[in-house]
Amino acid sequence: MRLILLGPPGAGKGTQAQRLVEKHGIPQLSTGDMLRAAVQAGTEVGKRAKAVMDAGELVSDAIVNAIVAERIDQPDCAGGFILDGYPRTLVQADAVESMLSERGIGLDTVVELVVDDRALVGRIVKRADDAKAAGQPVRKDDNPAVFEERLREYYKKTAPLTGYYYAKGKLKTVDGMASIDAVTAEIEAVLAAAVKAR
Ligand code: AMP
What we know:
Helices cover about 60% and strands about 10% of the residues. The protein is built from 9 helices and 5 strands; from the N terminus they run E-H-E-H-H-H-E-H-E-H-H-H-E-H. The chain has a 5-stranded parallel sheet with strand order 2-3-1-4-5, sandwiched between helices. It is globular. It binds adenosine monophosphate. Adenosine monophosphate binds next to helix 2 and helix 3. The site of adenosine monophosphate has 17 residues, from helix 2 and helix 3.
């Protein structure tokens, strides 16, 4: 199973991806997590990405494409993977096409979590509060000011991907405002249909 989770920041992609990992035993490839790990480790990529991420802007296509291309060749991706937060631009979407076709594999489906923007800032603030309460580090970009920029980047650069995948017949939309369990159930139904249609 190879799928993409699409949706604005705070839509619940990470939460749903974790559930899919448990149920299907395939890894979650979150470029955000990978970039934060690179920042933490102080690698060259991390150094280049840090300021951009802190500002809520997008890291360059070349950097993220290279990270993902390397990651999908790892043995744990052989049975499939969940792309979470990638692709985020049309250039990245084209890169996914090439990466997959070069490897002779395809994409099963693209699931878009459709949410009400007004609820998103509240979710981000809650995520920061929850992390603080659990004694975990709070993401620097999980605050209302940076969030606005992340949302702008989403509409400018990522939202066009819904048209891109719709035109390919790959796009499925799910109501991201429903309860976490209901969203999971809807995604599972989409995946079951995609497998059946193979
Ligand atoms: P996320 O954890 O998915 O919200 O990503 C956090 C930040 O990492 C984003 O605001 C971007 O700065 C950067 N980032 C993550 N994924 C990508 C991507 N596919 N393309 C460009 N930048 C990304």
